[in-house]
Amino acid sequence: MVVAIAVPKEVVGGERRVALVPEVVEKLRKAGHEVRVERDAGSLAYYPDDAYARAGATLVASPKELYAGAQIVVKVQPPTRSEVDLLGEGTVVIGFMNASRNPEVVARMRDRQLSVFALELVPRITRAQSMDALSSQATAGGYMAAIVGAESCPKFLPMLTTAAGTIRPATVLILGAGVAGLMAIATAKRLGAIVEAYDVRRAAGEQVRSLGAKFLALEINAEGEGGYARELTPEEKAKEQEMVSAAVARADVVITTANIPGRKAPRLISKETVARMRPGAVVVDLAAESGGNCELTRPGETIVSSGVTVLGPTNLPAAVPFHASQMYSKNLQSFLGLLIDANGQRVTDYSDEILAASLLVHAGEIRHAPTRDLVAGGKS
Ligand code: NAD
Q1: What is the CATH number of the domain that holds 243?
Q2: What is the atom index within ligand 1 of the atom nearest the CA of 126?
Q3: In the 8-state DSSP scheme, what is residue 188?
Q4: Which residue has its alpha carbon closest to ligand 1 atom 4?
Q5: Does one domain contain both 294 and 164?
Q6: Which residue range(s) make up the domain with 299?
Q7: Is 132 a catalytic residue?
Q8: Are 284 and 373 in a shared domain?
Q9: Assessment of whether the complete model's pTM goes beyond 0.90
């Protein structure tokens, strides 16, 4: 039996990525599955329709036609309400679901009896590394943050010795040295900047130094469960703010990526600190969508305050859509490997640790407890 997999064109504004690239479509076709791709699904990421056709996909003209009879739908962005309404009972949907920001859509998916896997819930265990879409897309976001920061900065990043004089290198400060932060550090280093970084997790220091950047050390360790950060005490917060503010004030570009899963992003840069920065300095706040690491950040907007530019990009991976899609697609290929067995049959037992942890909605129930509470609270 073949499995029918559907790849829609993403409908959220500004999204340029596609869930499956032709290379992965070809592998699924070779394994005997049917892959339907909506026309133009990959065109904004520079994967044209004819590449999908060569890979063996069936191109379809409309979402309605695409979803009719689809067993597994693969997406980048969470489905919209109108997409959900086109999906038949029992359809499996895989993608980022941002459940805490989409309680109504989650409730609708529950009512439509869909089986929904949220890639952001995939546990970060070794076996799931190839399915870690949060990491692959954070890599793309971190890279773009350094590029956007460099582009918005009125200075060269590298040191230059020229007949017209010597240029001192710019200083780039990265706050939060997780996946995105480390990629931003590596990119800013390659552009020739002096790079400093800070993270509440002491373990990040070694990784930062191995990339040739300076780690700003504070005498606390805030590594919590599973390698993520825990929340700091008020005294720790005050100390941290003092050290971070001084580093922010001397930087030309500040890239912030600090997040605590399931909570509002920590506030690391106050408007008073922004006022201490040099005119022309830039803040790229990758935590814009989860509340912002900088007080002045507005998601999706660029603010200029006393000559300092504060950018709040909400979807930087979409700015590097070719490779971000390629990486996401590989993550999905691995994930699909859990949902389709060796005989090409669709798996319906979701007790596997990775499937169980990422199963957001199934059989008319919200399986992820925090989302269930959220939806119950909103009475959706
Ligand atoms: P994240 O996006 O949740 O947060 C980004 C960074 O912000 C983290 O490094 C966090 O420590 C830091 N942060 C939080 N509060 C801060 C504050 N007040 N000041 C400064 N920094 C602050 O993190 P992530 O990129 O998803 O990675 C989190 C951890 O998970 C890291 O240790 C990473 O190496 C690890 N990880 C493991 C795997 C795996 O084993 N498969 C995969 C990816 C990431």
Answers
A1: 3.40.50.720
A2: 41
A3: H
A4: 259
A5: yes
A6: 140-314
A7: yes
A8: no
A9: yes
